[in-house]
From TrEMBL:
Matching InterPro entries: MFS_dom (IPR020846), MFS_sugar_transport-like (IPR005828), MFS_trans_sf (IPR036259), Myo-inositol_Transporter (IPR050814), Sugar/inositol_transpt (IPR003663), Sugar_transporter_CS (IPR005829)
Originating species: Stappia taiwanensis
Protein name as annotated: Sugar porter family MFS transporter
TM segment ranges: 43-63, 70-90, 96-117, 129-147, 159-178, 241-264, 276-301, 308-328, 340-362, 374-393, 399-422
Membrane topology field: Multi-pass membrane protein
GO cellular component annotations of the record: membrane
Pfam families: Sugar_tr
Location(s), subcellular: Membrane
Length: 444
């Protein structure tokens, strides 16, 4: 059951990645057909992260009130409707509204799915299980790039966007019959149901061991504040955890990842690659590296640990972004392959570290009574910064050039490495209840 539930919840990562990445191939056709300006191009592209801000806020309310599973059911419906509406869009405004709907689904599921996975997974496998969500994001991006490449010669941008409805229907069917998170069941006093879910997910434990886990969850919940209001995030205990989770996501976004994901063909054009087909083929290469290195992350995140991996990721991303900026600044088309290798290396370091770790930290650090609100705070910061980066990227490139833009991303990664060295905690191998009992503090 654990494998089935991990695959199911991670499918939301696939939808996340598909609806983010597919616009890369469709955008040139949309821009030409609707006569969209640079700012309009930024708005169409960034409508997804903008909608995700609202989705994260709504999920913070729904995740505790309705349960993790019900939030994911609603997200499946929004994914399907948003994809179909995008493919049928008659103009720029309709397309922006449809992508805002997809953004709401992405923002809500990006909070609920990692929470669902973290609350189901055994402690020793939690990092790898939550990383499965990030893996499926990368697979969704890769599949969207492949579809873009196949449909580009036909100019079939509507099919590119509308095909996202297919996995949404599959996911809806699966989550409809899935059990609820055992920790949410305990929050609602449904301890026997929680025992049944834990025994099914970890059959090697036996019923008594499952009952003991439920008692630990209940005890942890009983000792938590009865009214977890927002002001508690300003407390001495919660302030460093909340600030770390938020800053980790901000640094993830200003590393430039979503500028690369949304605008990969455009970036490759600035690097010296001519022709839409060539740019999309190179973009598929980026997607393949993203998937492969995320698989590597799943194997090492519970072995190497969160903190060293976070530091290494920022350092590697900074070095590769510096290479990309210098190559673009040279203005030599013969250096285009060097820029592409730099992008591959950047994606590799991001996928193995900066991609999954903020999601893992977010699902681990907050105590149960404040988890949905804490994750919502971090998610809003993530999507708000995502929106700004994606919206401003074409504007900044037009004003200052691609080389300067990538140099800025490099500088933020250097700051990220310093911050990770100073503040990143280590959480591998500990149960969520153990982390809560010992009152985990972010290292000074």
């Amino acid at each position: 059951m654990l494998i089935r539930l991990v695959a199911l919840a991670a499918l939301f990562g696939f939808l996340f990645g598909f609806d983010e990445g597919v616009i890369a191939g469709a955008l040139p056709f949309i821009t030409k057909l609707f006569g969209i300006t640079a700012a309009g191009e930024g708005m169409v592209t960034s409508a997804v992260p903008l909608g995700a801000v609202a989705g994260a806020i709504l999920a913070a309310i729904w995740a505790d009130a309705l349960g993790r599973r019900m939030v994911l059911i609603i997200c499946s419906l929004l994914f399907g409707i948003g994809a179909l509406a995008s493919g049928l869009a008659s103009g720029e405004v309709v397309l922006v509204v449809a992508r805002l709907m997809l953004g709401i689904a992405i923002g809500a599921s990006a909070l609920a799915a990692p929470m669902f996975l973290a609350e189901l997974a055994p402690a020793r496998q939690r990092g790898a299980v939550v990383s499965a969500f990030q893996l499926m994001i990368t697979i969704g991006i890769l599949v969207s790039y492949l579809i873009d490449m196949m449909l580009e010669p036909l100019g079939a941008w509507r099919w590119m966007l509308a095909l996202g409805a297919v996995p949404a229907i599959v996911t809806l069917g699966g989550i409809w019959f899935a059990p609820e998170s055992p920790r949410w069941l305990v929050m609602r006093g449904r301890n026997e149901e929680a025992e049944t879910v834990i025994a099914a997910v970890q059959p090697e434990l036996g019923r008594e061991a499952a009952a003991e886990i439920v008692r630990d969850i209940a005890a942890s919940q009983a000792s938590a504040p009865k009214s977890a209001d927002w002001s508690q995030f300003l407390s001495e205990r919660m302030r460093p955890i909340a600030s770390f989770a938020i800053i980790a996501f901000l640094l993830q976004q200003v590393s430039g990842i979503n500028a690369v994901i949304y605008y990969a063909p455009t970036i490759l054009g600035h690097a010296g690659f001519d022709g839409a087909s060539t740019q999309l083929a190179a973009t598929v290469g980026i997607g393949i590296v993203n998937v492969l290195m995320t698989v590597v992350a799943m194997f090492i995140v519970d072995r190497l640990g969160r903190r060293p991996l976070f530091i290494i990721g920022f350092l590697g991303a900074a070095a590769s972004l510096a290479v990309i900026a210098l190559t673009m600044n040279s203005g030599n088309p013969e250096m285009a392959p060097v820029a592409l290798v730099g992008l591959f290396v950047y994606i590799a370091f991001f996928a193995v570290s900066l991609g999954p770790l903020p999601w893992i930290y977010m699902s681990e650090l907050f105590p149960l009574s404040m988890r949905s609100r804490g994750m919502a705070m971090a998610s809003v910061a993530n999507w708000g910064c995502n929106f700004l980066v994606v919206f401003l990227f074409p504007v900044v490139v037009a004003a200052a050039g691609a080389a300067v833009t990538f140099a800025i991303f490099c500088g933020f990664c250097v700051l990220g490495a310093i911050y990770a060295w100073a503040r990143a905690p280590e959480t591998k191998g500990a149960s969520l209840e153990d982390l809560e009992k010992r009152g985990l503090a972010v290292t000074a």
